[in-house]
Amino acid sequence: MKGDEIMKSWVKTLIVIAVILIIIAIPTISSYNNLVTLEQAVDISESNIDTQLQRRSDLIPNLVNTVKGYASQEKDIFTDIANARSKLAGATNVNDQANADNELSNALSRLLVVVENYPDLKSNQNFIDLSVQLEGTENRIAIARQDYNTAVTEYNTKRKSFPTNIVASIFNFKEKPLYKANQDAQNVPEVDFSS
Q1: Taking the model in full, what pTM does it have?
Q2: Per-domain residue ranges for the chain?
Q3: CATH class of this structure's domain 1-171
Q4: CB 65 within 8 A of CB 127
């Protein structure tokens, strides 16, 4: 009889341990899976920014070539655009990408000021089509950046919330950076044609 009681005691202990492990495992698995899902959303959002930046980068040579036919003396702007495109293509993280994107946006702004000096160019159908496509792409880039920042905010908030922060720490989920424009992006770019 004593052996049966010891066996029952062990079985009860094992059942209690199993229930405790299940109670711990379910929220841990749920938190882990939620973090994985949110992290994937951040990665997809970042890829969407890259896609739109690539689209813009593909449109720019056509736009530049169209303008070159009319404004061959504006070589500095064309060089700046080419350099900025190269930096953007070589960006390895969100901050480098934001800085290169800012340089490219500034160069494009200067290019559009040049266009104002050439009324024939503004009425060229190829230029008009490219300008419309570029404007649409700029809007897509802005939306992609907003979507990325929303996904990052949701991920980082979940990552820092209790008890998910414990799971995030155990499984090494790192904080993701927000997409921030360069400080210079807040200033209106200066364009000087006097030189």
Answers
A1: 0.66
A2: 1-171
A3: mainly alpha
A4: no
Contact in structure between 49 and 97 (CB atoms under 8 Å): yes
Q: Over its length of 195 residues, how does the chain's per-residue pLDDT go in tens digits? A: 676 788 888 888 889 898 898 888 888 899 999 999 999 999 999 888 888 888 888 887 777 777 766 666 566 777 788 888 888 888 888 888 888 888 888 887 877 777 777 777 666 777 778 788 888 888 898 899 999 999 999 999 999 999 899 999 999 999 999 888 766 655 555 544 444
The single residue listed with the structure tokens 């993701």 is 176
Is residue 77 within 8 Å of 63, Cβ to Cβ?
no
Cβ atoms of 91 and 104 closer than 8 Å: no
List C-alpha distances in Å: 186 to 30, 77, 108, 189.
41, 21, 16, 9
- Cβ neighbours of 138 (radius 10 Å): 14
